[in-house]
Amino acid sequence: MATAAVQTPSHNRVEPGSSQLQPASYPEVVPPSDINVKEITKQWIDRLNETLSGSDWDTITQLFLPEACWRDQLALSWDYHTLDGPDKIASFLRSSPKGSRIKSISIDTSNPKVEPHITAADYHGQVKGIGAFLTIETDVGKGRGLVRLLQDPSAKWKAFTIITGHEETVGHNRPQGVDHGGHPGRKNWLERRTAKENFEGNLEPTVLILGAGQGGLTIAARLQQLSVPSLIIDLNPRVGDNWRNRYHQLVLHDPVWYDHLPYIPFPSHWPVFTPKDKLAEWFESYAKLLELNVWNQTKLTSASWDGQKRQWTVELERKKPDGSIDHRTLHPRHVVQATGHSGEMSMPQIKGIDIFKGDSLFHSSQFKGAKENGQGKKAVVVGCCNSGHDIAQDYFEHGYDVTMVQRSSTYVMSSKAGLDVLLAGIYVEDGPDTEDADLMFMSIPNRMLKRLHVDATKEIAKRDEELLKGLEKAGFKLDHGPDDAGFFMKYFQRGGGYYIDVGCSQLIIDGKIKVKQGQEITEVKEHGLAFGDGTELEADEIVFATGYQNMRGTARKIFGDQIAEQVKDVWGFDEEGELRTMWRRTGHPGFWFFGGNLALCRYFSRMLALQIKALEEGIMKYEDP
């Protein structure tokens, strides 16, 4: 008899082709006592510098714990790598054509807040060692890093985690803003700005960016700082419309300390959670203040790549204020698809979907808000992630009889408990500077992050105990994320399957929003939905909050099959535990994917901009590993 295939539980599902990330393990260490943290850090760094300069890679094993990870972002190579264990670190350095591109490492002395200090390497604070911010000198510039040193059972200090990466230069490189003296015919700032924004004369953008959301704006800001001309195009009439046009009650679920954009942080009076329209206004102001080149109501009609010239030929249609269409042909060397975290909406193909005779049936991305008076109306929301919950809550607040259809389990955490635990000590009021906070967070390799979040998820569940019990009693199916690692891992691994509770869970517990759980929809009826168990739900309005496809699908829609077949799938983890394809080379020269929440866009916009700059300067080659 054939054995039935075991189906992977939905909470452990990964993006097709990606790897199932295994949690790291904590090493056996000796707790630090009365020690000179600065001297111990200096001694370790001196030994590492000696190894890097002498290319004696076998001595790496003496500097790193067996469980160690070296996470590198463009400093050892022009890519992102997480190297697990001393042997892989040594092997990577040995196989590199240039050896180590890092020339020297030193303790960061720029600020007392970042000097070496006692820190914990686990969630509960039982594995303690030394944390130290680093200054890095590479073959092409400077960078920053962070190392965590632990004392092994033989009392030797070795690295447990280290991150190395590049940084940009600001402040002293600011432009003068004026050219004093007698210069007949010189243009003022507005005239120069208009010419630059419209790429008048022979001006061409080096980078064409598709989408004026947080991805497009942040990568354009970083490129401008590196003196790389870029142009953002967007179909919407105004910058920020991608948020203005979303459902009526949408508010960011991430706090303000986590969401700052490059160069202009949110002001100190900004609300903790930003409403969508307020964020849209900020985006529009951000683009103006940073003098980003944005063409709204502009469509890319064709694009082709010339491999010999290493450039694109793109045809654009730009709608003018008078309604006429301006046709432009441009030749950027790079195209960045910043059209959102995900791709096209994932709308299930269900029998009868075209015969529905209720008021409306659409995808959650098309939902603008519930009608003012929904008394006597029935709404069904298919899907139980953030959007599904927010939409169901909006319907309830407008008087509808609401049912959520839950097809598989959902990870739920309250906004307060989840964010208090996950962002504690890093992204908080009066916490570290954003740049330092980003480095602290990114210095944790994803396998270690998953291990830390197994413990953090238990703590969140403990704080949310009554909430979770109430949901289960109401028939709502819960999970704890991939391998019990909670929210962040679900976000990275599959981009959905979770809800950060901001009020809807209590409505479910109280029976004010009903739940239909565990049954597949078999058919859309004229006035409702039919399910596999033979039951039916009446509905006047149906919203499918069923998520989105891979960004590669959007690439196919915009650029066609030839380019889409060359690029790799996006999101999910590669074999090293780094996120696939996003913010790094895609498989097609001169083509980049860019997306994520505000925090990821803030951080990785620098990394992508540096790669493009390095290619333009001839420092990095398209063929570089």
Short description:
The chain is 28% helix and 23% strand. The chain starts with 36 loop residues before the first helix and ends in a 9-residue tail after the last helix.
Description:
With 625 residues, the protein is α/β, with parallel strands linked by helices. It folds into four domains: 37-166, Nuclear Transport Factor 2, Chain: A, CATH 3.10.450; 195-343 and 549-616, FAD/NAD(P)-binding domain, CATH 3.50.50; 347-406 and 518-547, FAD/NAD(P)-binding domain (3-Layer(bba) Sandwich); 408-501, no CATH class. The protein contains 17 helices and 25 strands. Strands 1, 2, 3, 4, 5, 6 and 7 form a seven-stranded mixed beta sheet that branches. α8 (386-397) links the parallel β16 and β17 (401-406). The two termini are 48 Å apart.
The CATH superfamily title of the largest domain: FAD/NAD(P)-binding domain
Number of helical regions? 17
User: Fraction of residues in helices?
Assistant: 25-40%
Oligomerization category of the chains in this entry = single chain
Tell me the domain tally.
4
Counted beta strands: 25
What would the CATH topology of the largest domain be? FAD/NAD(P)-binding domain
What would you call the shape?
globular
Key features?
625 residues, alpha/beta, Nuclear Transport Factor 2, Chain: A, FAD/NAD(P)-binding domain, 4 domains, 7-stranded mixed beta sheet, 5-stranded parallel beta sheet, 17 helices
